[in-house]
């Protein structure tokens, strides 16, 4: 059953994207891998194509949420004429060979038991101190929905096409996972966590890593701000004051 499209947002991952694509192409039911080269300055797109992926390029970096939407739109166009749209499996570009272990994320969606699965890595790596962003996301999801996520920022997710469309437009940048979870749970979609032996590159502690975590924090905070009832209520009141 060829019913899964793998979508991989990627920026400057030329050293690992080839292995990730090859592993993803071996997943049961995955007959399409789309890599969204999000403004890379290295050979990410070329390496991905050589490994067997369809590549869509952004001329400039537009962020993870935009890359996910671009990839999903490419799959939608390729799905025209099919009886059923493919399920969408999102994977990070730096999983390398471990991407071959992502099949359990698809099974509950394929069986109709879940509308979105979220990976919980059974093998953890040192994350260089970004636990404060995880807590921000986890606490925000719990306040908004009552559900506690184990790894709320995990980008390895499988969704039905219907669930993905219900969550659009996606939140910007690194706020996309937090927003996806909140928006789908609020709309009554079924979200399930699945333990998988995946692993990506550990986050360092140099200035680049710290800047990355700062962007994560900013994007997650923004995604939560517009989903917090108190904030939304204030925005609604401001809009009503501005109406003639």
TrEMBL record:
EC number: 2.4.1.266
Top-rank taxon: Bacteria
Pfam families, alphabetized: Glycos_transf_2 (PF00535)
TM region(s), chain numbering: none
InterPro entries reported in the protein's UniProt record: Glyco_trans_2-like, Glycosyltransferase_2, Nucleotide-diphossugar_trans
Keywords: Glycosyltransferase, Magnesium, Transferase
Keyword Heme included in the entry's annotation: no
Keyword rRNA processing listed: no
Broad EC category: transferase
SUPFAM superfamilies hit by this protein: Nucleotide-diphospho-sugar transferases
Cofactor needs: Mn(2+); Mg(2+)
Domain Glycosyltransferase 2-like per the UniProt entry, residue ranges: 6-121
UniProt catalytic activity: (2R)-3-phosphoglycerate + UDP-alpha-D-glucose = (2R)-2-O-(alpha-D-glucopyranosyl)-3-phospho-glycerate + UDP + H(+); an NDP-alpha-D-glucose + (2R)-3-phosphoglycerate = (2R)-2-O-(alpha-D-glucopyranosyl)-3-phospho-glycerate + a ribonucleoside 5'-diphosphate + H(+)
Sequence similarity: Belongs to the glycosyltransferase 2 family.
Protein's name in the database: Glucosyl-3-phosphoglycerate synthase
Species for this entry: Actinomadura gamaensis
